[in-house]
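FW: tagging you since you asked about this chain on Friday. Here's the raw sequence from the shared folder, copied in full. Didn't touch anything.
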Amino acid sequence: MATQRLNEQAEGVFIISATPFAADGSLDLQSTDRLIEFYLEQGVSGITVLGMMGEAHKLAADESAAFLTRVLQRVADRVPVVVGVSNAGLDNLFSLAHTAMSAGAAGVMVAPATGLGTEAKLLAYFRQVFEGLGESVPVCYQDYPFVTRSEISVATFNQLVTDYPQLVMLKHEEWPGLSKLSAVRKAARDGLRRVAVLVGNGGLYLPQELARGADGAMTGFAYPEMLVEVVRLWRQGEQDRAEDLFDAYLPLVRHEQQPGVGLALRKEVLRRRGAIATAQVRAPGPQLTATDHDELTRLISRVEKNLEAM
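HL: got it, structure written out here
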């Protein structure tokens, strides 16, 4: 069992792990070991697996279990591991969540079912989720309506925080979302239990989100050391230095955030950095062209020049 449990004090960078595949599309567990060590060497505060950008929806149940087990064994409780358990079927969600917690996960991440449509349906859905998981399973609510097409208001989120103490974190990645983040933080200042807020979207708006009260990031940018250092500098009161560093990487942050091809770009950068053996995205998925590779090479070169000039 994990000695670290996800709680409201979580902060820093919880990197969203890629899922390494071999060239034939099978799980690459040797690269998984290498990737986990790479993330830890960059100073991340936690690791999140089986997220949307981790291609969780493309894994069979036994593959999810094998990957999760390998990650937890490799991490060996050095940092907390959060497991994405979102699933169209609640029984499947509960099963993976309890498997993860029994194997040593620190908590689970749950996104709304796709297209719930109304606040009443969303609230009813999460009441089922929390009651089915039980109070012993810490939960991160993933608010990503761009994909789920299910939007939650601040009032409804606050109702869940009030009713379910196991809700300890918000993964905030709504577009636009800065005003929503401010409203969540205002509610905590006004007396609501404060939960951790980590932001996604590749870190695209990280400086502004930190200014609005975010505790860090939960995303998968291929240069996690930048995210780690930006959050560290910001917390030390060096906001200008944090933004200057962020700006140096911004061309790559933006490029990697493209819908559809972004994951292939992220995996290719990780491959070039020696973190994984291949940049394989499991089918159906994008494959980079020669032009894509040349474009990425030029962007990386420009980022390196930006860093040299700092």
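FW: The chain has one domain: 12-236.
HL: agreed, and Residues 114 and 148 are 4 Å apart (CA to CA).
FW: great, closing this out.
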